[in-house]
Amino acid sequence: MVIPTDVNRILAQMTLAEKVSLVSGADGWQTQEVARLGIGSLKTTDGPAGARGKLSVGGSQAVFLPAPAGQAATWSRADVRAIGRVLSREAETKAAQVLLAPTVCCVRNPLGGRNFESFSEDPFLSGALALEYVAGLQEKGNVVAAAKHFVANEQEFERFTINANISEKALREIYLRPFEMIVKGPSPPGCLMTSYNSVNGLHADMNCVLIQDILRGEWKYEGLVMSDWGGTNSTVESLIAGCDLEMPGPSDRRGEKLLKMIESDENGALAVALAQSSGRVLSLLERMGLLGLSESAAKASRTAEEKSSTAATDLQTVCDVVANGTVLLKNSWNVLPLLPHQISGKTITFIGPNARIGAAGGGGSASMNPQYQSHPMDAFKKRTAQCGVDVQVEYSIGAYSHKWLPLVTRDRWTVATNTGPDSVLRLEFFDAPDCGGSLVETQYRTESLMDLFDTAPLALQGTSRVYSFRMTSTVTPGTTGRHAFGITSIGNSRLFVDQTLLVDNYHWKEPGESFYSFGSSEARQSMDMVAGQTYHVVLESSSKDYMDVSSQNNAGETIENPFGTQPSVRLGFLEQPSGSLISDALELANRSDFTVLVVGLNEEWESEGFDRQTMELPGSQIELITALLSGMTQPSNLIIVNQSGSPVEMAWCDEAGTIIQAWYGGQEAGHALADVLLGLKPPSGRLPMTWPRRYPDLPFATDPESWPGVSGQVYYKEGVEVGYRWYLRQHVQPQWWFGYGLSYTTFLVSNLHMTMTQGGLILHVTVNNEGTFAGQEVIQVYCWPAELPERRELVSFQKTSLLQPGCEQVIELDVQFRDMAHWDCGHWLLEKGTYVLGICDHAGGLAIVRQDVSIPSSLKWDP
Ligand code: BGC
């Protein structure tokens, strides 16, 4: 038999059931193969900061890249394209053809749980960088992007059901704009993923206006549209709207249900929609070389082997990008960089919850199992040693910042196993509640985040199975004291220590934020324990009660997301701290020459599944910072580093001399920070989002209808006034503007020239490094009507190459008239008049140089 590779010929040979199978996912990450016709299975993998492979936790190792907020802070097209290229190689190691990224939703509110996964508050910056990310990723042809979440997924609160009410103007100018830019760009993403939420009354996956009229009709998008995981909200409407693929499988809304509907559909509209959608899945399979396979190869594509990343050459790129995105917020006394002759023979103390174990990324589907993690203090020691600089490095934690008790550690927890020395837990799975029924499988694990979404025994996965597991381990505390155990779980759970029930989370009622907010709040109990003594710990959990508990959201809709149906458990343990953390840290700082305080958030605070409740630093970090600033004999020697994906309140900012925003740097976070501190790499990042002074300054603080929503509705009342646009128009001063960031050097920008082109103009400007360190400058072009300076918007940007002191570069900036236009009654309009193109240091800065442009008659574009 000749196996066809041509989409139409294959379609003609397929049965209805086979076509249905193509548009209904197979398992957590793959589509269904049709072996008889040589059709293979597409494999997807998360996510924006790496290619994780088929397991959400504990899978094969991958390169952990900086979070997109940090990528965007580079303001460098070249850097983001390089990230895309690294990701294409990474996806290959995971045998995946679809990377579930980039996230191009907007940073609307600093509390948004997935801000760290997004690029920016500005649609132009987001779109321009996403374009590079996708182009780099798709360049080799082995993998395509699934840009997400189309559209208006700016919050996690009630994300499956919330209805985002957005004006047409804001939707077009802010939220759809980055999608439009990448779809119309030179390398459109192979896939788009719909958002969970509704937009103006209709779920995104069933939204004909968005998918049919705008995406496919106006923008002529030919790629595949897939639902978010569990985000196919109907059997018929979603297919009719053009959402081609339901993910994940086994199918909830399609499969048999869809087949029956099509068979009884008299007017044939469903069959037509099915042919179109299965055709688009086939086209992608063809593009990925997954058609025309032998029967056995088609089957094998479902189980292609994954490899741990061994990439070494890419790591330098990753480290450079992290450093390039690092934003120097303050350097008032020029303490940075710490040059060898200044620190040689000196003592440098690292303090803070993120100093020894830094935060590599946010949580949720963007989390990774990295090859390794470089942490701030260790990396600093390593770099100084490599450079032959003799420093004494000390450490004191100073404050905790955890939301849940820390995961158990291998130095204290262990379980007898023959699978290697690393296991800390044994899990025995049973096919009935309460560890009854038969033993199905025994697993050994290296961490106590037991997320079972895709790691439960295969026979037990799926939404309707009721099963249980028993976890066994031992703990030998290093200190004597009253030590705490904490568990959060989706199903019911309880923990025994030496056969005595210690933590009972069996009939939990209080929901928490673990497991994408499907889990309970943390149940904690402490007990007196003795150093060096070994305790036996057993935890039991089953999905029995979960099935009985209501899973309705506030709007009364039932949530059946696949992430919420396994009895996953998180176990934490903390030995009672001795002494006073803050005063110990202060005392140490006062004995040191320099203090590097690494504070911030982590994946427990910024994650898919929930938004932050406040903009404050969690735990006792604020007390720690203020104690150091007021108690240090030389506070000028305090360098404060913040790791987070969104702004945090810095009420103490005026007292601090040196502040760095380091974002989440993935596995190279520590190395890149050390390079920046030591001046081995200049920080050249600029904020991709405005940094508020205080959360109460924002309109969201007092209006629950606009954040996070009331009765299932959220109103985007600010319209197009998002981020810096709002600050400018409302005349509110932020802490730091969008686009802000310092360098170790200073630049002179001069000699602005303009040339008109067909659809816009080109600016040329000379940038000169006037200082004594090498550096990179970001040239930002804002446009505003001559009479309305508060209407300024970013229309072009370029980053210089690394300029040595005294060197200059001529930068070319392309400004398109269409990027200066606004949405006006069904089309884009640039009204006649005079506009200013100003090169500014940031969105709120005065123009360093400017050029007036006259538009003699209005210009119009179709959507
Ligand atoms: C997220 C997506 C992600 C998918 C698969 C969903 O919960 O919203 O961004 O790609 O899960 O992990």
From TrEMBL:
Catalysis: reaction(s): Hydrolysis of terminal, non-reducing beta-D-glucosyl residues with release of beta-D-glucose
Associated pathway: Glycan metabolism; cellulose degradation
Record SMART domains: Fn3_like, PA14
Protein name, per record: beta-glucosidase
Enzyme class, UniProt record, top EC level: hydrolase
EC number: 3.2.1.21
Keywords of the record: Carbohydrate metabolism, Cellulose degradation, Glycoprotein, Glycosidase, Hydrolase, Polysaccharide degradation
Matches recorded under InterPro entries: Cellulose_deg_GH3, Fn3-like, GH, Glyco_hydro_3_AS, Glyco_hydro_3_C, Glyco_hydro_3_C_sf, Glyco_hydro_3_N, Glyco_hydro_3_N_sf
UniProt similarity note: Belongs to the glycosyl hydrolase 3 family.
Pfam hit, one: Glyco_hydro_3_C
PROSITE patterns recorded: GLYCOSYL_HYDROL_F3, PA14
Lineage: Eukaryota, Fungi, Dikarya, Ascomycota, Pezizomycotina
Taxonomic source organism: Aspergillus cavernicola
Gene Ontology MF annotations: hydrolase activity
Domain PA14: 420-570
